[in-house]
Amino acid sequence: MGEQRSLPVPEGLEGERLDAALARLFGFSRTRAAELIATGDVLVDGSIAAKSDRVHAGAWLDVTIPPPPATPMPVAEPVPGMTILYEDDDIVVVDKPIGVAAHPTVGWTGPTVIGGLLGAGHKVATSGAAERQGIVHRLDANTTGAMVVAKSEFAYSHLKRAFKERTVDKRYHALVQGHMDPLRGTVDAPIDRHPSGDGRFAVVAGGKESVTHYDTVEAFRAASLLDIKLETGRTHQIRVHMSALRHPCVGDLMYGADPTLAARLGVTRQWLHAVSLAFEHPASGEWVSFTSPYPEDLARALEIVSDES
């Protein structure tokens, strides 16, 4: 049984669509509000209504909010293609392949870094939520490259603090559409969930501070290879910032990339790779650095775009 909420429609929402009114009142996305209305969990003056119905001030809303689905636990099984770049008693640095999430989330049924490590017999820290043990930072499921996981509790707390205090050097290479102007620069624009509620993120006033430094490594006819240093680590940060500059990552159809160019270069995901990761080792205090080579699909796309120039 979900949580029951009953309240009158405030005057400020007079004439709004029901889905928009619910989104405003409860902080849902419009999509989530529409789902609740469709399943009969929203009554207006005791009756089921449509999402497009207009609400009137004083009308009584009865809303049943189902409990959130439980986050699945990691499935301990080896992940093909995931290699170990470095490992000791405190940390393990993986080269994450395409189609692998950092840890389980609601709605993700594919392989995870945590599940892959456990399945291959590696120990990880038990700090943090059970489904994301040892995870101190994440890469999107379809972003490849270097990612560190804490094995000891000491390393977990040390690395969590290092990422929070921005003392970790995170570098990415991105192939973006067109040419950057200026060739190097900084994007300082706040990011939050896209108002559509469709899983995208966007530059939104009042969002979380997000800072991306970029430098052009090479400009081709159709695209540019960028070296990117992240100061903050928001979800989809590079993808959102590049899209906001009208230079989305090649192949990133979610953020407005050209499908024709993606098809010509044979990429079926965003051309974005976590090329290196450097930080102070939790145990020794030494500055350590790890690099990941381009995977086959990105290397091939770069070859094609270079040959065309």
Automatic annotation (TrEMBL):
Top-level EC class: isomerase
PROSITE patterns assigned: PSI_RLU, S4
E.C. no: 5.4.99.-
Top-rank taxon, per record: Bacteria
InterPro entries, per database record: PsdUridine_synth_cat_dom_sf, PsdUridine_synth_RluA-like_CS, PsdUridine_synth_RluC/D, PsdUridine_synth_RsuA/RluA, RluA_PseudoU_synthase, S4_RNA-bd, S4_RNA-bd_sf
RNA-binding S4 domain location: 16-72
Glycoprotein in keyword set: no
Keywords noted in UniProt: Isomerase, RNA-binding
Catalytic function, reaction form: a uridine in RNA = a pseudouridine in RNA
Gene3D superfamilies named among the record's database cross-references: Pseudouridine synthase, RNA-binding S4 domain
Gene Ontology terms, MF aspect: isomerase activity
Protein family membership: Belongs to the pseudouridine synthase RluA family.
Function: Responsible for synthesis of pseudouridine from uracil.
Stated name of the protein: Pseudouridine synthase
The species this protein was found in: Microtetraspora glauca
